[in-house]
Amino acid sequence: MLEDRTEHPCQVVDMSPGNVALRTERAGLPGEKVIAYIDHIGRIEGVITRTLQDGFAMTVIASDRKRDKLAAQLTWLANKHELDLPEDRRHERVAPRNPTSVLQLADGRQYQCRIIDLSLSGAAIEIDVKPAIGVQVTLGTMRGQVVRHFEDGVAIEFAVVQRPETLDTEFSSPRG
Question: What residues form DSSP beta bridges with 51?
């Protein structure tokens, strides 16, 4: 999306944590702000540094933490085939109708959280605390463990793959 809020398809030609070259039908002008949604990466923001014959190059504007995360994602994407790594997403992720839930630790402590997205095998939640990776937790009534930290929360892998009906029942209506 260019600064004038027009959206255009694009393709990443080259990317690092600090810069991206995009192939696109319509390039903006140097200095123009851009937002790009990139498969496997997500949303990135930046400023066009130069136009190319078939697109433009941009500098990524991000915090050090987000740049570190981007570097890790790019490394994973670059190496997943050589290392024969499994895909990161085994099941489709959806936003729950009721994103409010409670995360309970094994010692009984409970924390309010917001479910960002949910799949049959896990969830990403926004939460103020960061339980250690590997810690056993319960999200609503589903047992699992923390498998990853990110800027605003944690990712949980459920102990067993859930049935779609279970997720619908668990996260479809507000609880009081």
Answer: 56
SS3 label, residue 127: coil
Asked if 131 contacts 153 with a C-beta cutoff of 8 angstroms, the reply is no
Q: What is the DSSP string of 89-154?
A: -SS--B--SS-EEEEEETTS-EEEEEEEEE-SSEEEEE-S--PPTT-EEEETTEEEEEEEEETTEE
Residue percentage of the chain with pLDDT more than 90:
41
3-state secondary structure of 152: coil
Q: Where are the domains of the chain?
A: 10-79, 100-171
CATH architecture under which domain 100-171 falls: Beta Barrel (2.40)
Q: Cα separation of 108 and 2, whole Å?
A: 48
Residue 118 class from Cβ within 10 Å (0-12 exposed, 13-18 middle, 19+ buried)? buried
Query: In this structure, are residues 92 and 100 in contact, taking their beta carbons and an 8 Å threshold?
Result: no
**CATH number given to 10-79:** 2.40.10.220
Q: What is the 3-state secondary structure (H, E, C) of 57-70?
A: EEEECCCHHHHHHH
Mean pLDDT score across all residues of the chain: 84
Those residues whose C-beta lies under 8 Å from the C-beta of residue 166, and which sit 6 or more positions away, are: 142
Q: Is the pLDDT of residue 127 over 90?
A: yes
CA-CA distance, 39 to 20, in Å (whole number)?
14
- pLDDT given at position 31: 96
